[in-house]
Known about the structure:
three-stranded antiparallel β-sheet, 10 strands
Amino acid sequence: MSAPLQRLAERKALSQPVPLGSSDTLKVLLTAQENKKGKRPHQAFLLFKDSDSGLETSYPFSVKESGKGKIEITHKDLPLQFLTSSRPLVASVVIASFGSSTPYSSYAFDLAIDVDTGAPIGPQEKPLRYGKLPEIHHNFKSDPQSPPKLITLVFMAAVIVALPVLLATWLSLGANFNHLSKALGNSPVSHILFYGSILAMEGIFFMYYTTWNLFQTLPAAIAIGSITFLSGSRCLTEVQNRRLAGLR
């Protein structure tokens, strides 16, 4: 069924409701103007309101740069509450733009919904309501824990046992402790700093394992590592000089 063509006048509603059957399409055409020249507004939509429940919904016009807009609405575009309304829907045209433009909002016509009594209407869904939601409780992961003490003791024992083996291997390869006093005499500061920084690094690892976090450990490790690198270079230079002098 095709409804007759009706012309809307500015700020003057139609005298008779516009029928909309289940197979009909409501088509509304308009031209937005500013100073009697066609212009595309920032917002243009058709607003429907159910007088019984106060429910409102809006549909935007598709508007060109020339100001000409169009909208098409069928039964499937309307909420279920509108299809079951006992009174015609109140339709208004709303147009607005930024700046000094005068907004337009006017009652245009009544829309009478004709529902096919033989066609089934789907179940009514609970409308979405915006409001306070239940409090959300976050479960954060617990802080990382140290490994079991048994594993720690096993690895510590392995390190302690490895020290005599390392010392024996060093002696078997010809290590000479007689040069210790000469090395300390030639470069005392670099040797003391080098071996002291190694012990300090072990202390940093111990503190990280027991109480420190990563942000406390990294600055200290960088500082001690720099001392180890610089003093170790001086120690190697001293060892090279002794080797070149024929001392083994």
